[in-house]
Here is the input.
Amino acid sequence: MLFVAIVAQFAVGGLTLLGLRRRPANAALIGLVVLASAAAMIVAEGVGVESTPRSRVDWLPALGFNLTLELDGFAVLMSIVVLVLGFGVLLYSLAYFEHDATYARFVGLFMAFAGSMTGVVLAADLFTMFVFWELTSICSFLLIGLNDTSESARKSAVRALLTTGAGGLCLLGGVGILQTELGTTTFAELVKLQPSGALIDAAIVLVLLGAFTKSAQFPFHFWLPGAMAAPTPVSAYLHSATMVKAGIVLLARTSPAFGQSDVWRWWVIVAGITTMVIGGWRALRQTDAKLLLAHSTVSQLGLLTVLVGMGTSTALYAGVAHLLAHAVFKVALFLGVGVIDHELGTRDVTKLAAARIRLPFVTSALVASTLSMAGVIPLFGFVTKEKALVALLDAELGLAGSVALVGVVLGSVLSVAYSVRFLHALLGEVAPDGTRGDDQQNGEHHSSTLIARTLLGAPVIVAATASIVFGFAATQIGKWLVAPSTSLDVLAKSKLVLWPGVNDALIISVVVVAVGAVVGWRVPLAVSASPNSLGERMFDAIYDSILSASKKITQVSQPGSLPIYVVVTTLVVAVAALVGLLRDGMPSFDAFVTDSPLTVSVALLTAVLTVGVAVVSVRFTAAVFLGGVGYGIAVLFLMRGAPDLALTQVLVETLTIVIFLLAMRSMPRNFIPASKWPPKAVRVLVSVAVGVLLPLVALAVYSARRAPSVSDEYFTRSVDEAGGANVVNVILVDFRGFDTMGEITVLAVAALGVVNLVRVAERNRRERAS
Amino acid sequence: MSLSLLVLVGVLFAVGTYLLMERSLTRVALGVGVLGNGANLLIVVAGSDSGQAPIVGRPDQLTDPLPQALVLTAIVIGFALLSFVLALAWRNWTITENDGVEDDFEDRSLVSRKEGTAKPGDAPHHEDVAR
Here is the structure.
């Protein structure tokens, strides 16, 4: 059943991309039904049941790699978040895209993405998660680049794909190490084993790299703001509420297993708080509301990383709670800004204020969600942030714990500050010129019907309402969150309250809000100095240098000239042969037998003819000499006891001469001169080197034989089994009959090629003649 | 092991390699033919001793049939290859009046091309954002 929920979403995606391209709205409606029924199924199967439903598809059982899904508490919570937010965003997109030609592609990729993400959260082992993880990377790449005519969108898409893709490779390395070391990658088993050791530490680092790239943790935080090139529904869903949470899901799943390792803890805490502070600082300096939210997402992901990865039970619980809170308020914020953009045509923070006249409901929803983001009572964000502070205060992790606490407090101050900036934008004075200028330029923005505006506004308002209701119902929500967090770590049992009473955490919170408000209010609107962050510039520098290095290597290694290729290839072979000969000693010359005078004279004649092929400058003579070489070799075969070879050689050589003459009949008498490079001396030198070294190698090979030939077997079985006395013939048509069939096939394919080439040439000649 | 045949193998390989480095497509085809002969002879010489034809029932020392079976296949495939190369040469000549092996155009242009003009880090800008 669990697989059905995933496959159905992919099926809708495929159907949209293949069959319903012209009717994307219908496809979206089918998608809505599938998302809703999948969510209903998840609730029916997973809530309040005794045993956790599992399903499994064997993939590579011999290597221990199978697709395993499990619907435990955390999976229920996360898949409901994924499916319900997906439902809301898809609903919103119906009105957002209107007549946009890319909508069909959006719906198809969106459904495929929702399916992949459901797979990530349902995965019961690291391998299954990796498979769906990569699928989300690909979908994200395609969705960021949805507007494929924009160069910057394409660039951002490539940045995101390469960053998350590299992380995915690291994760695969981690999966490999764990599978070979422990024989399992199942999360439950890993938690039970509590593995440690040097190799496990390497696996931990690889898994963390996977999680950090996906969740845009420092130093990989740069790709996420760039991903905002995607349309708003994509940004809202993938890059704030779900996909970037995949890294957090991975951390949450593996933290109970690895959380006690020092490597894990320090990496997680340092990366998390650095990300939180950098993201908050950069969010403070944005003037584009969408980018402000993008940087705030980076910052919030940092906080989640610290909470979920820190390795203490209370922090894990707080992390799960904040994960929910963040998904709810961030999706509302992104979609709300999208509505303003859609209706007013601006996302500039200095112009947002006009929205509260035109869009009062959406603006109120945005205000509520922003307050939740800042962690202001009585919203859900306050509840979870309090829990986070309590967890950090109680962590007892020594220096690491103190670093985490200080970092989170600093990051929270910045969170409040950019929230205040955003509120100021929403509630501040309407700029004197208002949005009139924009309105005139974007006249079509007024055309939104009531239905469209309802579709756009409803998900925003519902999500914002959820932030409020969850806040007041904190105790109940807290009880519901126990199942998800205990399914990760049995000890992660705690509760949420709206009003905790005056304690250390509350005092810190009050100070944070006060300081943050002053910072956000007072610090002037500092526009970001550079359009690119340091991370983006570093990424581009590495990317460009790899490209130019590969271009240089190609320029050197692939000059496009056949003579040069032959020289290089031959020299490599010659040097390899020489090294082999020098290392193992020259072959002994004892093996030679005395040749009969006839053999010597035929060989000599053939050698002279061979040299003649290269020396003569007349085409016809060269071809005849080649034929002579062939006949000479046929005679030598005959004298060595190979009559079949001699016969074949004579036939083939005759045919070759005929074909040569046919091909050359209209060509000029003499050859064109050889190219200047390589010079003749080099060509002769290379040829002589091959001519000397290769016979030596042949001699060494001959002398190296120790075992008897497999032909002894052929001799004994030839007459009885194949009914033939001529062993060469029996081998060809019986023992190795399939090889001969392959040979005949090659001959047939070559004949077809020859016929076509000649026909093309003939047709061309006739056309020119007429 | 026969010394004269071994020397002949060396000559065949040397001449074949030399011809492959030429500009004229016909000469390259000749080189393919010579190299093919060299390889066939090499396998027979290094793979078996001289002797009577490998037919069951003959009284004398029989030679090893396996290299012969391999080489028989190789002769035929070498012939197919040579025919194809010659057909290419014929087509090339009839259409372009040219018997030369040209340098690969794409590769040459890559060698002579200047570095790309795109500057590192063209940032995505929100004005490009699709709607």
